[in-house]
Amino acid sequence: MSGRKTYKLSVLVTVEEPHRERLDAIEQQLRNAGLEVVDTSELGGIIAGDIEEEKLGSLAAVPGVANVEVDQSYTTEDEDPHS
C-alpha cells in the first residue's frame, strides 16, 4: 500500500530592491511560510527553494517579495508506516 502523494514545487522568489538589505529576515519568513530554502543569491535578491503546492500562495504574502516563479514541479510519495 502506498503513502500519500505530496506535490512539491521548485520556486524562485525575487525580493524587491528596497528590501534586499533584509534578505536574511525575508528568507526566515519564507521558511516560516513553508519554503525549504535551497540557495540564496544576495546579489540578485533571489531565493530558490521547494514548497508544497498548497502552501505556494503564502510566499507572495511575505512583505518584500516581488515575485514567485515556479521553476518545476515534482511528486514525492510519503512513506506509509503501516505497509
TrEMBL record:
Gene3D superfamilies: Peptidase S8 propeptide/proteinase inhibitor I9. It comes from the Bacteria. This is Ketohydroxyglutarate aldolase.
